[in-house]
Amino acid sequence: MSASIDRDARAVLLPAFDTLDVLDIMVPFLKEGGCSVLIGETRAEYVARAMSTERLACETPDGFRASIAALQAVTPHLIVAVDQELGGIQRLAGLVPPLPTLDEAHTLSPDALAERCRITAQGARALGVSMFLAPIADIIDGQNVWLRARTMGSYPQAVARLVSAFVTGVQAAGITAVTKHFPGFNDLAEDPALADVCLATPLDRILHNMLPFKAAIEAGTKAIMTGPAPVAAIDGNNSASTSPAVMAMLRSQLGFKGLVVSDDLDAPATLRGQSLLETAIASLNAGADLLLVAGGPHLSALSEGIAAAAQCGDIKQQRLADAAARVRQIAGGG
């Protein structure tokens, strides 16, 4: 049982790196039960919403594919996630056929847009990628520096149409779409990755802006990512990624049955003064299945802490096992 818990504790983690040079950390992690990796971007690239000229000059499809293949040699059924957003951050810029621009996407029919997204996803699959942390379903009708230049519009019906086509297209190519950031963050005073900020939007406005998430679920999105900040109208004490009430809304009110992915647990608005381990435990207990965390040498201690929490009852062993099983199902192509 202990060995199973240890492996489950690693299976529920999605470590993020801003480089392809991850073997030293990821190989031991994978051998001990991990099955996911996020090939991300630097903070500067994240802020710029574009890959750096240096990255674009040095990364090639063959080099990217070889780096992923080295990880797949350890864990053949490996979730390889990237940010590949329509209108936002595109980690695979220069490596795969591009997504349409946002302006172009709004002019395409749903079928035509889905086909363009499928072609991009097909290129990603050829590189070994299996998951897009996209589409962004948030409606921005206030200020939000965190999502500025990443969202797809201010009108729920228009965004819902794009979200549905994106999910349909990328999943037709075998890529898991992770629709984000539930329940939607329309107006944040600060960046939750930098400050402990709370969404103060009234519930009726949140529900009004939730249409794109409902469209994603109707389109069959295999995963949904919860947001990084508290939502006062639902649960003002816990971030969406650690909130039982937010998870219950997603599961019970929207009827979502798939994989729930947390946003970055290292964000100040998610940690809220707690340790990373305490936050990971809270996220699992709330109902998240796959926990996004920064990659690094601390992964081993974090995994051991989660396993110990399951051993002593701070996390129900069945909850951990169910989360790990849902992650492995997605990793296996389910």
Detailed description of the structure:
The protein is α/β, with parallel strands linked by helices. The protein has a single domain (2-331), classed as Alpha-Beta Barrel (TIM Barrel), CATH 3.20.20.300. It is built from 16 helices and ten strands. Strands 9-6-5-4-3-2-1-10 form an eight-stranded parallel sheet. Strand 1 (13-17), helix 2 and strand 2 (36-39) form a beta-alpha-beta unit. Helix 1 packs across helix 16, helix 7 packs across helix 8 (156-172) and helix 8 (156-172) runs parallel beside helix 10 (211-219). The longest helix is centred in the middle third of the chain and has 18 residues, at 110-127. The mean pLDDT is 97.
Write the topology of this structure.
Layout: H1 2-11, E1 13-17, H2 23-31, E2 36-39, H3 43-48, H4 53-58, H5 61-72, E3 79-82, H6 102-107, H7 110-127, E4 131-132, H8 156-172, E5 176-182, H9 203-208, H10 211-219, E6 223-226, E7 230-231, H11 232-235, E8 236-239, H12 244-253, E9 259-261, H13 268-271, H14 276-286, E10 291-294, H15 299-312, H16 317-331
Parallel strand pairs: 1-2, 1-10, 2-3, 3-4, 4-5, 5-6, 6-9
Helix pairs in contact: 1-15, 1-16, 7-8, 8-10, 14-15
Give the structure's gist in a few sentences.
The two termini are 25 Å apart. The protein has 16 helices and 10 strands. Helices cover 47% and strands 12% of the residues.
